[in-house]
Every structure is written in C-alpha cells, then in structure tokens.
Amino acid sequence: MSEAVVILKKGKMDRIVNGHPWIYGNEIDAITGGQPDAGAIVDVVMKNQKFLGRGYFNPKSQIAVRLLTRNRAEKIDEDFFRTRIVACRDYRKKLGYNENYRVVFGEGDSLPALVIDKFHDVFVLQTLSFGMERWKEVIVSILKKEFSPRGIYERNDVPVRKLEGLEERTGFLSDPFATTFNIDELGVRLQIDLVQGQKTGFFLDQKENRLALKHISEGAEVLDCFCYTGSFSLFAAAFGAKYVTGIDVSEEAVAQAKQNASLNPFGSVCDFQCANAFDVLPQWVKEKKSFDVVILDPPAFTKSRSGIESAVRGYKEINLRVLKLIRPGGSLLTFSCSHFMSEVIFQKLVSEAAVDAHRMVRQVAFLSQSKDHPIVWNIPETNYLKGFLLQVL
Ligand code: SAH
Predict the structure, then answer these.
(1) Mean pLDDT across the stretch 45-49?
(2) Strands of 63-69's sheet, edge to edge?
(3) Distances (CA, A) of 372 to 27, 57, 94, 119, 138
(4) Domain 78-177, CATH among 1.20.1250.20, 3.40.640.10, 1.10.1060.10, 3.30.750.80
(5) Dihedral through CA 384, CA 385, CA 386, CA 392, nearest 10?
(6) How far is the CA of 297 from the centre of ligand 1 (A)?
(7) Which helix H or strand E contains 104, and what residues bound it?
(8) Using 50, 70 and 90 to split pLDDT, how confident is the model at 2?
(9) How large is the average pLDDT for residues 126-131?
C-alpha cells in the first residue's frame, strides 16, 4: 500500500468521483505520511477519508496526481501494468485490430500519459508524465514478453514532457533495429520512418476514416490537403481515383509520400507537391481549379482553450477555400484533431464556410477517431478527432 495520502479539499469533486483521473494541485487540501517524491504512488482520499483511488504524484506538474486505479486492493506493480496492457490488446483484438494499431491510448485505457503504437512487429512508445516515465523499463519488459517485438523505439520528443519536468528524448528501447520499414495498412503499402516521421511515425487514428473514400473516389479527381506521407491519397488511388494531388508544407513528408506512391501499383495516379495550403488554395480558387473529392486533415490549430478563436479562423478559411474548389455533387472530407475544437464549434464553422462559399452541403457521415483510440465520456480530453464527410451540392 502507498504511504503518502493525498486528501482532497472539501467540495464538489464530481469530475474526479465520476471517472476523471487527474487531480490538480489546487484541489489538494493536505498530504499525510510525508511529502512524496515525484513519481511516487499515493492514495487519494476525499476530505471525509473516503478512498478515491491510487495513482502517481508529481509536485512539478499542475496535474499533481493521475489515478491508475480506483480499486483499493490493487497494487501498482509489474503485474498491474501487465494486466492493463493485456486488457488493451484483448479489447483491440475483439474489434479486429491485429496488425497496425494503437495498443495503449493513455487516459482512454486507464494508463494515463502512456501511448504505445504497434506497426506489425515494431512498437513505438511515449511516456508523457513523470509518473509513467518511472515505469518505462517495466512496460518495455512487458511488451517484450507479451508481443515478442522485433524492436521498440521511444518517441518522447513531445514538448508536453517539459510540464512534467522531463526532457525530450528519442531512441531504442530494445536492441537497435531498422527504423525504416514497410507496413501493409488495409491493402496499402506504406513506409514508416520511426526517426524522421511526425509523432509516432504514422497517424493510426484516421485508419477507418480513410475507408470513407471508398466508392466516392472511383474515377474522381482528388485533392489531399495536409497529406503528410500520402495515406489518404493512396487510399483514394486504391479506390479508383483518376488523379490525386497531395500537398504538404513539409518537404520530408512529401518525399515520403512520393516513396509511398512508388510502393503501390495504383500509386502512379498520385502527384505530391510541397506547398503551403494557405497560399495555394486561394490561388487555385482564382485559377478556377476543381476537384471531385477534397480531403482536409490539418494539424491541430490550437492546443489550448485560449487559442480557439484564431484556430476557428484558420479552419474556416481552408474549408471555405476548398468548398469553392469542389464540383457540384462532389465530396469534402474535413477534420479537426484539436480536442478544444468541439464537434459543435467545428460543425458551425464548416457550415458558415459553406454559406460564405455559396454552397449547400449535405452530411453523409460524422467521423471520429479509430476505435483503438477509445473515448471515455467522463474524460473529455480523450475525444479529439472529429470530421465530416459532406456532399457538396
Ligand atoms: N492526413 C495525414 C495526416 C496529416 S497531419 C495522414 O492521415 O497521414 C498534418 C500535416 O499538415 C502535417 O504533415 C504537416 O506537415 C502539414 N501542414 C501543416 N501546416 C501546413 C500548411 N500550412 N500547408 C500544408 N501542410 C501543412
């Protein structure tokens, strides 16, 4: 059992009681049993001593405790992590995920601040809090035993670690192995570069949404804005697109997209260009270019609540531009991956962009993150990716 006990302030603690695992420093009334070190396991109780849960502590972070369990009898040890990680795998297996998927989605899997992606037999790990960092070696040894991976790589080059008093770092967590390799993603061949790639190398959260291009891409001229390594482009091509233009501001991403096109027999219809969407879209509107299908999957324009207003302007501008480029009857697949951009705000801004572009749109589907990124309703931060497939009339 843990020695230190964190006592919460009196008052409404509904958020925590109902399932949110974060306890902010200003919600703590007192700590008994000695001042815990950063990363120490502590018990959390209500003011009336009622047990709430057990988690790891970090005095340097605004999030002072992240709860790992609400079961008083559960010890936090190697077995705890093994049971949780195996449960994560079982959940995904049941949903049909075997090959490339997010094995652990942090708070969504009751393993706060831990992200593990699997690409065939290679694993990429992120420990984004001090408490989770402490268990990294244990987690790596569990992965080795449970999955017999070819290799494990750390992509902890994430600025959020600074808020936890951690440095950014990347590197092997297993014997060195080839960090550039090909995967087969639902019939499309893609090269993953674990070292140079963005985030963990590939965006698994869009897995099912790429399938939304089926049928609508047949014979279509497609524009994939913010294409990164060309995954949506290649799915459109696989689904019979006549021609696909992919643009991204990152030269590395475009080079990788070109390489990915060359790995697939249908890739020859793709053309990738390094360009800034905010520059080329207005220019193409002026030139009266047109497309049957446009994919808009920009990076998160805001990572904080205070940045929403300017993010809305950014999203609205690009949606407005592409709506003008879509032929009557064509499709727009538009996304926001910012948690702070709620579904309601996002729908409103796309709808306003359509009005401004003098286009009527019809919602074909509402889209969200893949099922290996489960959303826990009582932890709003687990819900971040939202999108619409729209028919543009
Ligand atoms: N759709 C991709 C992921 C896109 S991530 C996939 O499913 O794999 C967002 C991409 O937008 C990144 O590759 C980033 O380089 C690119 N980007 C950011 N700002 C941009 C801009 N102004 N114009 C074009 N691309 C941009």
Answers:
(1) 96
(2) 22-24, 63-69, 51-57, 41-45, 5-8, 28-32
(3) 32, 27, 11, 13, 23
(4) 3.30.750.80
(5) 150
(6) 7
(7) strand 100-105
(8) low
(9) 98
Query: Of all protein residues, whose CA lies closest to atom 19 belonging to ligand 1?
Result: 249
Answer whether 370's CB lies under 8 Å from 386's CB: no
Residue bearing the CA closest to ligand 1, atom 20: 249
Q: Determine whether the shortest distance from the Cβ of 248 to ligand 1 is under 6 A.
A: yes
Residue-wise pLDDT for 323-360, tens only, equals: 999 999 999 999 999 999 999 999 999 999 999 999 99
Q: Which tens digits make up the pLDDT trace of 257-279?
A: 999 999 999 999 999 999 999 99
Distance 3 CA to ligand 1 centre (A): 47
Is 270 labeled as catalytic in the residue annotation?
no
Is 383 close to ligand 1, i.e. is its CB under 6 Å away? no
Q: What is the CATH number of domain 185-392?
A: 3.40.50.150
**Distance set, CA 383 to CA 140, 212, 277, 373 (Å):** 27, 20, 26, 9
Query: How confident is the model at residue 88, as a pLDDT?
Result: 98
Using the 8-state DSSP alphabet, how is residue 168 labeled? -
The verdict on the CB of residue 221 being under 6 Å from ligand 1 is no
Sketch the domain layout of the chain as residue ranges: 5-69, 78-177, 185-392
Q: How is domain 5-69 classified at the architecture level of CATH?
A: Roll (2.30)
Pick the closest to residue 119 from 62, 42, 182, 167 (CA basis): 182
Q: Whose CA is nearest to atom 9 of ligand 1?
A: 299
